[in-house]
Amino acid sequence: MLSRFCYRHPPLRWAAFSLLGLALVAPVLRADFAKGLAAYKAGDFAAAHREFLESAEAGEPPAMLSLAFLYMHGEGVPVDYREAVRWLEPAAEKGLAPAQHSLALAYYEGRGVPRNTAVAANYFESAALQGLADAQYNLGVLYARGDGVAQDWARAKFWHEKAAEQGMTDSELALGAMYANGQGVARDYVEAARWFGKAAEQGNARAQRALERFGESAPAPAPAVEVARLSPAVSGTLPVKPSALAAPALVPKRNFWRKAPAPLTLSEFQALQARAVTGEAAAQLELGIHYYHGDSVKRSLLRAYVWAKRAALKGNPGGEAMSKGMYWELDEQQRKIAERLLAPPAKP
């Protein structure tokens, strides 16, 4: 849970592998297993089942996992979690990380076996130690919850960091929450924003929302303890805030956005927001003004600036005037968060 904005771990991750990617974990393929993969790719699941079964009975772990996959998804055979687990267990015992991860999920959710979160944690750890990012994330979730293991924030942080190193955005989001709440680490809003930003930059929608809410609710960072830098011309005078020195003079005709707009009904506000989200510059500017004044919606300088800037980026002169004029009302942390929210999404 975030201190001022709700965060919950999403459900544990099931899809840790693609059946057609199993060749990566089986450098030397038996002929029947290779035929099974070809049949599966062609959509002939019955033939794939026959070939996988022959290879699995000969002791091939990837074939065992493939059979389990078919039974879990009902491809070529009826859905049968017990039969899936029967093949997952020997594959897991032979050290196949995706099989260990899938078996852990089966125990965690009680699919094909009685639910046992402690056994699940054990198999997650086996897969996590082999570097499987999904297992590292899930193990971090269990340690944070104290689910199947004793709650241990230090271990949760360790495994989320391992998964984050591999680009697991949900782990980056979890780390941001830990720093925001001071769970297992000293509370550090700058570090929290950094982790939220890393996930948001990769297109994680939950992280983007968390980052925006964090910018509204997190307290402003304490001012740096240092002597103000003064130019020789003002030496010996009282320190002046840098932002005050740099702020442009207000131009009355450009301050239209400081006038409170007429309140909107809920349906009117939702319609305005829908137009803004679809890219209508005039609606983006109007939405920014409503956020600035807190009319029809909770006041947020961050959201006001971001919407005005989005309008400006589309060439709207009102958005340009508003975003420039209110930029100096944001603190440094809000400016950094705004930059991340306005940055184009990362290419896949």
Q: Would you kindly provide a written description of the structure presented here, covering whatever features stand out?
A:
- By secondary structure, the chain is mainly α.
- The chain has two domains: 19-216, Serine Threonine Protein Phosphatase 5, Tetratricopeptide repeat (Alpha Horseshoe); 241-330, no CATH class.
- It is built from 17 helices and no strands.
- Helix 1 (31-41) runs antiparallel to helix 2 (45-57).
- The chain is elongated, with a radius of gyration of 27 Å.
- The two termini are 29 Å apart.
Silhouette? elongated
Main β sheet profile: none
Q: In terms of per-residue confidence, which ranges show pLDDT below 50 for 5 or more consecutive residues?
A: 1-8, 218-252
The number of domains: 2
Mean pLDDT: 77
Instruction: Report the top-level CATH class of the largest domain.
Output: Mainly Alpha
What CATH calls the topology of the largest domain is Serine Threonine Protein Phosphatase 5, Tetratricopeptide repeat
Number of strands: 0
CATH arch. level architecture of the largest domain: Alpha Horseshoe
Q: Please give the count of helices.
A: 17
CATH homologous superfamily identity of the largest domain? Tetratricopeptide repeat domain
Helix/strand class: mainly alpha
Radius of gyration: 27 Å
- Portion of residues in beta strands equals under 5%
Distance between the termini: 29 Å
The helix/strand order is HHHHHHHHHHHHHHHHH
Estimate percent helicity.
55-70%
